[in-house]
Amino acid sequence: MAFLDIHHLEKSFGAMRVVKDFNLGIEKGEFVSFLGPSGCGKTTVLRMVAGFETPTSGAIRIDGQDVTATPANRRKIGMVFQAYALFPNLTVEQNIGFGLRVAGEGKAETGKRVAEMLELIGLPQLGSRYPFQLSGGQQQRVALARALAVRPQVLLLDEPLSALDAKIRISLREEIRRIQRDLGITTIFVTHDQEEALSMSDRVVVMHQGVADQVGTPFEIYNRPATRFVAQFVGTLNLLDADLMDAAAGHIRLGDVPVALNRTLPGRVGDRISLALRPETVALGRREHGNVVLAGHIAEVHFLGSVIRIRVTVAGQLVSLDTFNQPNRPPPAVGTPVEVSVSDRDLLVLAA
Amino acid sequence: MTGKRLWSWLAVVLGGLYFLLPLAGMVDFSLRMQRDGYSFGAYRIVLTDAQFQQTFGYSVGLALLTIVLGILIVVPTAYFVRLRFPGLRPIVEFITLLPLVIPPIVIVFGYIRIYNTSSVLPLTGSWWGTNILVLFGYAVLSLPYMYRSVDTGLRTIDIASLTEAAQSLGAGWARILAVVILPNVFVSVLSGAFLTFAIVIGEYVFAALLNVNSFGPYMVWMGGNRAYEPSALAVVAFAITWACMGLIQLFTRFSKFSTVRR
Questions:
Q1: Residue B16: inside a domain
Q2: What is the mean pLDDT of residues B144-165?
Q3: B167 at A interface, C-beta within 8 A
Q4: How many structural domains compose chain B?
Q5: Nearest CB to A150; choose among B157, B167, B169
Q6: Is the ipTM beyond the 0.90 threshold?
Q7: CB burial readout B28-42, b (16+ within 10 A) else e
Q8: Which residue range is the domain that position B180 belongs to?
Q9: Which pTM was predicted?
Q10: I need a surface site. Which of A19, A181, B93, B147 has the fewest CB within 10 A?
């Protein structure tokens, strides 16, 4: 059994089912992200783990103990909120020591632990400040220290970086990951930012309409999306409509162009299927590993600095591809006839 | 000075005169006890009067107890209404506004009818019982001010997140209310408390009909039996009210942390 075991979890608000048969096992010390758009149920699952929402059905076990009916203040869970939720009337030290005082720790022990935590978040000189005297990034660091001071069994992070500006967000996400690794604490991180989820997590749970669409490593999620939603939500994606010609042999038709995928495909002859293709897997011109070559012409060119995103019309459909900028080679002009090549292995057939 | 500005100043001056002239007249009258000039004679008589000291002390004590009772009733109510039962807010607001609509005399007659000496709970039959009735009555009178102040204070902080943060750190409801919520609405509670203080100090109807020796009936008695002393007493009452208002400002400005700055 996993350290944190979420078993057939369901949550309904009135007639609306916001979490549907959610199952997940998280190992001790693992960093798992819940990724999904607003309203997909990721925060609701997190709040049920924290004890702020009561599941309609299902069970939550931490270290073998069923905590489904345990009140939030007895779950030994640390939580960091999007809005920091630091106590405005308490100094940084008092905020960090709050949970320890609640637990009845002595003054000396509390002081020592608070100093340790301030050191951990790199703010040892700000202990006597009030929250309003800190920047957003500093406040979130203090919130993290406060959650960790009580040595929780599980750390829950509810979109902790959303309210911060881009630069702070990147440095803080690296810091959160470092602290999590150092302490080896089991962590759930809720975010709608795919870059955050992919860069920080051991595993990612992509949620959609209350269901965990796919659970996997960032590499698996990005390269082998299980559903159309995951493929579209994570990363940029080309979606192409094709007709199935021979399922057993893996032959399809893209417009008028026959394409051999060289693997068995689901469905029957004449079925309409969706092909997914990441922009970075498509090359301009013929390539050694690009055994599928399609002719088209340049429709759009977007110069993004180090990367140039080119859109090519192929068989009546648009395909985006990325190339690196080369100072001695200007991007092709719109309307230029070109060939694009792709490996048949990178053409994913999506489930509906 | 432009014409527009002149009219603005004129309006301010007229408004100021309307408010200040009667006060100035009252202060002037309170200082004319001796025929040959101004003196503080009336103030001396009032402040050294044993009955003044007794009634004023009693009213101050009662006001402080009313404030404590008001905080104990209003802070948890307003907090839980905001946190758990937001749908009940209009109803609770309506109930807390009732003391402004229902005259105190109706409330006190209700009390006398329910808690008289031949009732099941004969509170009016004993000194303690009567004082408890007065205290509860004053807490009711202070509800509109106390509830509004605390509710406004709660609106300025994210009580849901603060509550959940405290819960995740192991705190129970009592600690959350005492250590997290109350200090963060302290300035609001204080403004409600000072208004309560001002109301209780001058309250007459409850005190007279329940026959307690508080400051309100003393002022009325003084008004009916003396000439200069009532004016001195009124000035003292005004000074106390203004001091309360000043204290609200002082606490708001110099509190170590401010909810506004967050």
A1: no
A2: 93
A3: yes
A4: 1
A5: B169
A6: no
A7: ebbbebeeeeeeebb
A8: 50-257
A9: 0.81
A10: A181
